[in-house]
Write a structure and sequence with these properties.
By secondary structure, the chain is mainly α. It is built from five helices and no strands.
Length: 98
Amino acid sequence: MTRSHGRKRISRTREAARAAAHSGPERRAALWVETARAYSQRGRLAEGYQALRIAESCAAQDIRRPAVRELVADMAARDRRRALPELHHFSRRLGVPA
């Protein structure tokens, strides 16, 4: 994915999150997970982690889905220098190998 596609995805996801502000918690969580995915694809792991924490606060059960666990595993693997210890703690809490 190119950088411009990542920027567009983040922008679209932010717009969708604003539009879904009054929708159900599962929908809001799904939008924040997509925001995390977009940030991750751009290499912005800290922002991606924060988006995942917001998703968890919306619907904690949705964070345990296999696709989200795979995203967390990928993000933790990309943080080779362990600059985000909270991401690795989050990963371990979900039972995701890092």
